Each structure stands twice: as structure tokens, then as C-alpha cells.
């Protein structure tokens, strides 16, 4: 019997398969998949996230765990937002929970989210209003499904370096976000 790999990057089957952020009501704010999935498969993944949320009081700091086919599912509530991750191989529930906790810490810090009654005032509006930052944080912390050990300062540096290409002529990601906001009347 061979020893397990020491790093999740050592095995192509040990990785994050999906990251999704929703409101407490279940409305999807952001989702990314690191595998080629059709719409039905994405719906099944979302359903697995919904399943682990059912019959739980979703309060700040609540951790949710479950299984999906051959993978593990983890969720974490931050303010009025739920972050979910699906992992396979050695990406178990503990690793996924830790990853989501670090991601929320980075998002709260980088987006400068205020605290209300001892918890971050994170909600869907904050993430939509900072969608470009959300995308960048996810991309910096999870590259092709492999979790990167990037903290707040690393993300801030990459945000500063990447901001020039985002704002180039208003056609970058910020321009897309502005268009989305104007189309929904924000």
C-alpha cells in the first residue's frame, strides 16, 4: 500500500472542484467550477450545497459539511453570505472549511467590510458591489482547483498589480461589473 501524497497538488484528483457563494436565501452570487460540467451536473452540485444547508440555522460562523458522489462538501456562513466548496481526494471537509474561512477573512479585510454586532456586515450587495475583487480573491486563492497559501497581503499586492489591466479603457472586468450594475439599476 502506497503512502498518500504530501500535497493536494501531487494528485490531479485531489483538488477543489467548485466554489459557490450564495445569500442565506440560496440565491447564487458567484460560482466557479474547475471541471467541465454541463448544466445538469452544475445543478446537482448546487443541490448538494443546498442539502447541507437544509435543517440548519444559518448563523454567522456556522459550518456545514456533507458528501457529493465521490467528493466532500463544505460550507461556511459569513454574515449573510454562505460560501461552499466541493473537493475530492485529500481535499476533505476540514481542509475545505479552513480554506473557506481564510477566503472570508481575506474578503472581509480586502473589501474593508464593517462589523455590526460583532460580525462582518457581509451580504450579497457587498459581494456584487465588489465583484471584481471577489473574482480576483478566488483566482488568487484557488488556481485551477489547487488551493494556494495566499494571505491578505498577497492578495492586496496582486490587486494593485492587476488593477491597471482591469481598468484599461473601461473594457476590463470593472467595465463589465459597471455594465451589470447599470443594467440592474444599482
Question: How would you sum up this structure, described in words?
Answer:
A five-stranded antiparallel β-sheet has the order 2-1-5-4-3, with helices on both faces. Helix content is 41%, strand content 23%. The chain is globular. The N terminus is likely disordered. Helix 2 packs across helix 4. With 186 residues, the chain is α+β, with helices and mostly antiparallel strands. It contains six helices and nine strands; from the N terminus they run ββαβββαββααββαα. Strand 8 and strand 9 form a beta hairpin. The protein has a single domain, classed as Beta-Lactamase (2-Layer Sandwich). The chain starts with 15 loop residues before the first strand and ends with a helix.
Short key terms for the protein model shown above:
186 residues; two-stranded antiparallel ribbon; disordered N terminus; alpha+beta; Beta-Lactamase; 41% helix; 6 helices
What topology emerges from the helices and strands here?
Blueprint: E1 16-23, E2 28-33, H1 39-53, E3 63-68, E4 71-78, E5 81-87, H2 93-110, E6 115-116, E7 119-120, H3 124-129, H4 131-141, E8 142-143, E9 146-147, H5 152-166, H6 173-183
Antiparallel strand pairs: 1-2, 1-5, 3-4, 4-5, 6-7, 8-9
Helix pairs in contact: 2-4
Summarize the model shown.
The chain has 186 residues and is α+β, with helices and mostly antiparallel strands. It has helices at residues 39-53, 93-110, 124-129, 131-141, 152-166, 173-183; strands at residues 16-23, 28-33, 63-68, 71-78, 81-87, 115-116, 119-120, 142-143, 146-147. Strand 3 (63-68) and strand 4 (71-78) form a beta hairpin.
